[in-house]
User: Which sequence fits this backbone?
């Protein structure tokens, strides 16, 4: 055991030492210390997180609340002295014909011997009940037209449990994790899988060592991903097609048979469930769909198995908003002699609606806002303009950041993401920033050549531990020097591997330097990601302070180096960045 630790430490020491010989970044420690002092001693990050999580949530894309949150965020940026603060409307609506909010939810189960309340959340863009509705519960796990034929004429006025009862595992291990030194060393020594822009094979979040993070309960995919054992049935959670293939739609069958609504669950247990939704749901042809905890779902199902009739009553009010505003939020701190060149930092601003979106991704958006406040408050010199970008529509397929890229950087529209839907296994999506494949050469806009780098935060509340290099070897020696002032804060690791599923891919996918930070998992995949527990209470205050401070430091260093950040070699002609499919992160 001792020999193993010595080997790991020696390997890491060698990796740390070699890149330092390759470059001289002239890190100004006096300015970095100003940034660290402001970020760690005078932080406003948790107050900002409270406003965004407690007051301006949930921020479902296209909802009135996300518009109000944007106005609040712009007000703070202007208060700090940022310029060019504005909403940038999307040029492409991306099939967002309706905004949506859940305004009221009540559900309860009753039977001859008693009654209990059912917590839950309607899936996004499904209709309400038009007042209090009551009907018997029935379990229907069949998915094909042939197997569903037995229910013909038997579903009118009933609430349908749409999937088998899940097995719920205990928390045998602590659900909250930080990366160990050995796990970070494994990431550091990884090799790049392939050279293409932003490609992450479905089913693998590259860069993370084996067993580095708690497994996402409910199967090998993302929480609630179709096909994961015990994941929400696609018809209930997403309004999608049943398992029959072809053109058969199970939800249409339930609707035409007169069902009241659909219930689904996830196998997390402990009162935790995962939410999502499809923006293409038409209220005229869609049933109310609700996700409830496994405990209540299982109790109802077990009583039905004993031939105990169970009735469900519900009063759900959901509101649709036609043609809602769709936008990104930007604001600048102008540079000096290189002011026409841009260093961009950001994260997604939208979230799902079962909770507050505090960790996914309020924490990331706020960290980048706080980074801008730190830079402005300290007054450290910036040669390049530093811009913050807060993206809407990330949960529907990186839509906001893709719109920014197609508006500012490349003259080619992003391939429209499939509406709604859950992520492929591993939570990956948009491997090349959603710009499709195969593709010809990029037709760039003038801003493309003025773009230096993009830094993204979107993996929860955990402290930053390093950077995924996205296969860009040339930035490794640069980042190695940049990390030195933050080593005592836990920032130690570079891995050549890619990571997927968030907005850096929109930029990486068109050949621009763009990076997601390595973050401690904390409870991200076990408790928080897209669940009803993504609340302010899940945030780790010191980690949030550290995130913002390091983001400010990296933005400062990128803004002040003599050259823009190096690009990695382009992928072969016609290959572009492959797209792993739309999804959620």
Assistant:
């Amino acid at each position: 055991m001792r020999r193993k630790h010595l080997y790991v430490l020696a390997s890491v020491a060698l990796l740390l030492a070699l890149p330092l010989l390759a470059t001289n970044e002239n890190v100004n420690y006096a300015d970095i210390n100003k940034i660290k002092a402001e970020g760690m001693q005078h932080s406003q990050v948790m107050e900002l997180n409270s406003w965004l999580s407690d007051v301006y949530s949930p921020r479902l894309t296209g909802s009135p609340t996300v518009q109000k949150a944007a106005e609040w965020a712009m007000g703070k940026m202007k208060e700090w002295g940022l310029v060019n603060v504005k909403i940038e409307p999307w040029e492409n609506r991306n099939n967002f014909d309706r905004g949506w909010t859940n305004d009221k939810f009540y559900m309860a189960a009753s039977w001859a011997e008693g009654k209990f309340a059912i917590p839950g959340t309607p899936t996004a863009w499904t209709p309400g009940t038009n007042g209090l509705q009551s009907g018997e519960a029935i379990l229907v796990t069949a998915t094909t037209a042939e197997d569903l034929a037995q229910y013909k004429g038997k579903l009118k006025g009933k609430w349908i449990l749409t999937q088998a009862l899940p097995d719920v595992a205990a928390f045998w291990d602590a659900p909250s994790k930080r990366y160990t030194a050995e796990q970070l060393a494994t990431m550091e020594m990884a090799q790049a899988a392939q050279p293409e822009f932003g490609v992450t094979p479905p089913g693998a979040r590259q860069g993370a060592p084996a067993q580095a993070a708690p497994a996402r309960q409910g199967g090998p995919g993302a929480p609630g991903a179709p096909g994961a054992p015990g994941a929400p049935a696609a018809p209930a959670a997403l309004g999608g097609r049943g398992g029959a293939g072809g053109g058969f739609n199970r939800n249409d069958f339930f609707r035409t048979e007169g069902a009241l609504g659909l219930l689904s669950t996830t196998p997390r247990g402990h009162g935790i469930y995962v939410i999502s939704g499809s923006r293409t749901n038409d209220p005229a042809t869609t049933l109310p769909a609700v996700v409830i905890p496994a405990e209540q779902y299982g109790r109802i199902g077990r009583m039905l198995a004993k031939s105990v009739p169970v009735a469900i009553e519900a009063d759900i009010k959901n509101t649709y908003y036609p043609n809602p505003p769709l936008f990104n939020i930007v604001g600048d701190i102008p540079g000096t002699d290189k002011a026409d060149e841009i260093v961009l930092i950001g994260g997604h601003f939208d979230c799902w609606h079962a909770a507050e979106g505090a960790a996914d991704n309020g924490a990331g958006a706020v960290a980048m806002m706080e980074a801008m406040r730190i830079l402005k408050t300290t007054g450290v010199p910036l040669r390049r303009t530093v811009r913050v970008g807060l993206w809407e529509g990330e949960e529907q397929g990186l839509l906001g950041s893709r719109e920014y890229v197609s508006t500012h950087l490349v003259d080619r529209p992003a391939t429209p993401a499939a509406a709604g839907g859950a992520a492929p296994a591993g939570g990956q999506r948009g491997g090349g920033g959603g710009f499709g494949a195969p593709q010809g050469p990029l037709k760039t806009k003038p801003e493309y050549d003025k773009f230096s780098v993009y830094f993204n935060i979107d993996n929860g509340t955990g402290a930053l531990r390093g950077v995924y290099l996205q296969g860009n070897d040339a930035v490794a020696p640069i980042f190695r020097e940049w990390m030195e002032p933050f080593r005592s804060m836990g920032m130690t690791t570079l891995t050549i591997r890619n990571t997927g599923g968030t907005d850096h891919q929109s930029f990486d996918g068109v050949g621009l330097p763009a990076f997601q930070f390595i973050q401690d998992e904390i409870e991200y995949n076990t408790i928080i990601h897209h669940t009803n527990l993504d609340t302010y209470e899940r945030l780790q205050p010191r980690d949030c302070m550290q995130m913002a401070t390091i983001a400010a430091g990296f933005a400062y260093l990128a803004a002040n180096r003599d050259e823009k950040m190096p690009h990695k070699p382009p992928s072969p002609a016609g290959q572009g960045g492959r797209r792993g499919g739309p999804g959620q992160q």
